[in-house]
Design a protein that fits this description.
Keywords: Receptor. The chain has 74 residues and is mainly alpha-helical. It is built from 3 helices and no strands.
Length: 74
């Protein structure tokens, strides 16, 4: 069976792939992505740590799903 000649190439690790992506983009782009990722992560932690927000989000999703099922039956 022919694998296209890729048998002699070693598999990249995840760290090597990230390093390759890091070399591909300029520093301002990397800094902007890092800042955005940190902001998203910090806001997600704040949201997850507030039980009332979690309850409101989960209940909204469950009620929306229930209403959607009821509308499909009609």
């Amino acid at each position: 069976m022919d694998n296209g000649g890729y048998d002699d190439e070693t598999d990249e690790t995840l760290a090597e792939r990230f390093l390759g992506l890091q070399e591909m983009f300029p520093i301002p782009v990397r800094q902007a992505v890092g800042t955005a990722a940190n902001g998203i992560f910090n806001n997600a932690k704040k949201f997850a740590s507030n039980p009332s927000l979690m309850f409101a989000a989960v209940s909204f999703i469950l009620w929306a799903r229930l209403i959607q099922k009821i509308n499909r039956l009609n």
